[in-house]
Inverse folding.
């Protein structure tokens, strides 16, 4: 797509509206990621832009649809690749394939079709939510941009990338997205929130990987 200079000039001259995803309903953000989001919000507000909180349809539901699609072949492709070298399954793959990657038959076409319908319905629901934000922006239009973390942590330890929901959601939605660096970790200010209470076991496991 060519750079649209005229559109860029128009956007630069007007105030925009931004939605912020502070939490995806499953896993909380580590302190440096939370601080990075807060700094972005403050800078946008200082420029006079409108900020609203992004409260979309359940991301967990969208990710369940995505994970189902990822495993249509029941690991046949992964299994054949591993057999070429004889190497074992990487521990990180246990998130998707908790047990052995067995030679199970691929998913039936009717099940795939049903999941495709679920995906289209989810995309439609998400689009309708986005359009509904026109009532909140003050511009008469839906939000221009949604800002969200790439991951709940600044960096994952080996075998510690336990949650990819913040970025994977754009795959099921088929949205355009990009990543912009914002800040760096500072252990002197990115300290643990002693009042933190996990929503679930995964939320606790992810937060336990944070050293601060």
């Amino acid at each position: 797509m060519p750079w649209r200079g005229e559109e860029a000039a128009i956007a630069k001259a007007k105030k925009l509206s931004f939605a912020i995803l502070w939490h995806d309903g499953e896993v909380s953000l580590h302190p440096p990621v939370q601080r990075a989001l807060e700094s972005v919000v403050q800078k946008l507000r200082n420029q006079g832009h409108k900020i609203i909180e992004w409260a979309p349809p359940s991301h967990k539901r969208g990710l369940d649809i995505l994970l189902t699609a990822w495993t249509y072949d029941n690991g046949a492709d992964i299994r054949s690749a591993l057999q070429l070298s004889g190497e074992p399954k990487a521990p990180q793959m246990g998130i998707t394939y908790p047990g052995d990657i067995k030679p199970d038959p691929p998913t039936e076409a009717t099940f795939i079709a049903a999941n495709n319908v679920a995906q289209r319905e989810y995309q439609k629901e998400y689009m309708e939510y986005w359009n509904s934000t026109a009532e909140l922006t003050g511009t008469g239009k839906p939000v221009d941009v949604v800002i969200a973390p790439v991951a709940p942590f600044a960096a994952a330890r080996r075998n510690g990338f336990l949650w990819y929901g913040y970025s994977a959601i754009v795959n099921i939605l088929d949205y355009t997205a990009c990543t912009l660096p914002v800040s760096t970790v500072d252990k002197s200010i990115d300290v643990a929130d002693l009042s933190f209470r996990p929503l679930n076991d995964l939320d606790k496991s992810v937060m336990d990987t944070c050293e601060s």
